[in-house]
């Protein structure tokens, strides 16, 4: 197992940054961050500070967890009401040509933060439940039940809209 | 999977793809934030150096968003999502070659791009699939490789590269000797063909297809008398004299085939052949070669250090050993020498 850093640490760090930053920006955006780029930058600042300790197989889970935690804590600081938080500029649920995407995202934005995290990690990053749990800092069982509850809630509200 | 899961997955992917990320700008900002130790990482410096060596502007790395259907938009600074080269080929990934295997197991897209000196590249993820595009300085696409996420790693599935079956990358007026868009390598060290005080002259410089489908290199050809021979040096500065043709007073010397060394030594045949004539007294006035495709006018080369001597070179299509050509060397009084036969390279 090779640590991220050795004699060539800047090269490795740079390659990791280029390879992962876009994904992290998008992850932060989907989780509802007001400034997803800043969240991603912060994640890499922390990775840089911890670079001697993080090993390659842990890299992606490490970055995912930093982003999830950061978005969560920024949300708390801003005291943003969950029902008013929107994802990536989605304003209202609609039923026009792009309505399904808009409606789904808008309703997801109204879910509790942990349920949104579970959905994004599971259905955008396609993570297995154990890695969803790792990113969220919960047990695998909790991750499964959180995803299940979130899907149920989403199904119910979207079914109502579809009627 | 339930319908709501499908809808949710589609919505998340569309929303993610709609977000553009300017990786270069963000990296610069991060470098400012981290301070001097990570400013100008060596990997970036290597990319910049490669771009400068290739004679072009400094370019960078961008990861760009998809548009939902064609997946990728390529603003200035990116890589075109579509091939603009005339011919492409699927790379043999079964182990039959190792010149271009852009796998990502144990390495990053940036490392693959650097290995192939790609001036531009982008890596676009789409759920459990991803695409790595390597681009030339002008943003044209050189190769497109597709990956599938399995066991946490991107597994190479297919790769398509620009390839016309020869080392010769497309260039305007391909049968004209001279410069074809790049600054030639300098005629010094290994590329200096001259001996005994004779200087070498630049014959040609033209772009070459790498196995990656990129046009990141070029070959220079220099020529000079070397004793009783005419010597040709071909390649990059780490190459040298590759062909020597015995001279005579005035006449057609033969065909020079080492046009793209070292590429034409390993299975990629040059689409061109060079018919060479020599005139020790400098009295000839014209050299032309006729074949099925027409008549090709030769170009004369000389240098003050050669005395009155001049060489004539005519570039013709490499049509194979069965196709007859006729080369005629004239002076003011008429025909000096005539060659009849193939002008072919294998």
Structure report:
The complex is a heterodimer of chains A (163) and B (346). In chain A, α1 crosses α3 and α2 crosses α3. The termini of chain A are far apart. Chain A has 163 residues and is an all-alpha fold. The longest helix of chain A has 23 residues. Chain A has 7 helices and no strands. Chain A has 2 domains: 80 residues, Orthogonal Bundle (Rna Polymerase Sigma Factor, Chain: A); 82 residues, Winged helix-like DNA-binding domain superfamily/Winged helix DNA-binding domain (Arc Repressor Mutant, subunit A, Orthogonal Bundle). The relative contact order of chain A is 0.11. Helices cover 67% and strands 0% of the residues of chain A. The radius of gyration of chain A is 17 Å and the shape is globular. With 346 residues, chain B is mainly beta. Chain B is built from 4 helices and 17 strands. About 12% of the residues of chain B have low confidence. The interface between A and B is large, with 42 and 41 residues.
Layout: helices, strands, pairs:
The complex is a heterodimer of chains A (163) and B (346).
Chain A lengths: L8 H22 L5 H14 L9 H20 L20 H11 L3 H11 L5 H8 L3 H23 L1
Chain B lengths: L2 H15 L5 H12 L7 H12 L34 E3 L18 H7 L4 E7 L2 E7 L5 E10 L2 E10 L38 E8 L8 E10 L2 E7 L4 E7 L3 E7 L15 E8 L4 E8 L2 E4 L1 E3 L8 E8 L6 E8 L2 E9 L4
Antiparallel strand pairs in B: 1-5, 2-3, 3-4, 4-5, 6-7, 7-8, 8-9, 10-11, 11-15, 12-13, 12-16, 14-15, 16-17
């Amino acid at each position: 197992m090779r640590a991220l850093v050795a004699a060539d640490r800047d090269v490795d760090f740079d390659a990791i940054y280029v390879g992962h930053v876009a994904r992290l920006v998008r992850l932060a955006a989907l989780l509802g961050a007001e400034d997803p780029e800043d969240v991603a930058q912060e994640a890499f600042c922390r990775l840089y500070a911890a670079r001697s300790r993080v090993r390659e197989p842990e890299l992606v889970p490490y970055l995912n967890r930093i982003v999830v935690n950061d978005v969560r804590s920024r949300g708390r600081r801003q005291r943003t009401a969950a029902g008013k938080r929107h994802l990536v500029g989605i304003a209202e649920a609609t039923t026009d040509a792009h309505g399904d995407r808009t409606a789904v995202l808008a309703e997801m934005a109204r879910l509790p933060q942990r349920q949104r995290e579970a959905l994004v990690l599971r259905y955008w990053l396609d993570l297995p439940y154990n890695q969803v749990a790792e990113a969220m800092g919960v047990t695998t069982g909790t991750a499964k039940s959180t995803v299940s509850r979130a899907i149920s809630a989403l199904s119910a509200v979207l079914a109502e809209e579809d009627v | 999977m339930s319908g709501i899961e499908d809808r949710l997955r589609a919505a998340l992917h569309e929303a993610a793809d709609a977000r553009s990320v300017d990786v270069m700008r963000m990296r610069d900002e991060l470098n400012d934030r981290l301070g001097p130790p990570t400013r100008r990482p060596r990997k970036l410096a290597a990319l910049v150096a490669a771009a400068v060596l290739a004679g072009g502007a400094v370019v960078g790395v961008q990861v760009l968003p998809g548009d939902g259907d064609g997946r990728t938009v390529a603003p200035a600074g990116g890589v075109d999502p579509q091939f603009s080269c005339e011919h492409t080929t699927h790379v043999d990934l079964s182990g039959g070659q190792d010149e271009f295997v852009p796998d990502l197991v144990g390495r990053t897209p940036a490392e693959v791009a650097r290995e192939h000196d790609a001036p531009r590249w982008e890596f676009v993820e789409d759920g459990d699939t991803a695409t790595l595009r390597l681009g030339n300085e002008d943003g044209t696409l050189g190769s497109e490789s597709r990956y599938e996420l399995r066991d946490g790693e991107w597994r190479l599935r297919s790769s398509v590269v620009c390839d016309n079956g020869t080392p010769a990358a497309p260039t305007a007026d391909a049968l004209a000797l001279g410069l074809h868009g790049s600054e030639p390598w300098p005629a010094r060290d290994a590329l200096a063909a001259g001996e005994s005080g004779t200087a070498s002259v630049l014959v040609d410089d033209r772009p070459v297809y790498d196995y990656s489908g990129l046009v990141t290199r070029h070959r220079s050809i220099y020529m000079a008398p070397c004793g009783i021979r005419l010597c040709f040096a071909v390649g990059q500065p780490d190459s040298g004299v590759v062909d020597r043709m015995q001279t005579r007073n005035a006449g057609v010397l033969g065909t020079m085939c080492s046009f793209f060394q070292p590429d034409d030594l390993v299975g990629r045949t040059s689409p061109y052949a060079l018919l060479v004539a020599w005139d020790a007294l400098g009295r000839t006035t014209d050299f032309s070669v006729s074949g099925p495709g027409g008549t090709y006018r030769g170009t004369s080369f000389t240098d003050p250090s050669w005395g009155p001597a001049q060489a004539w070179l005519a570039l013709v299509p490499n049509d194979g050993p069965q196709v007859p050509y006729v080369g005629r060397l004239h002076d003011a009084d008429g025909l000096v020498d005539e060659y009849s036969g193939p002008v072919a390279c294998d």
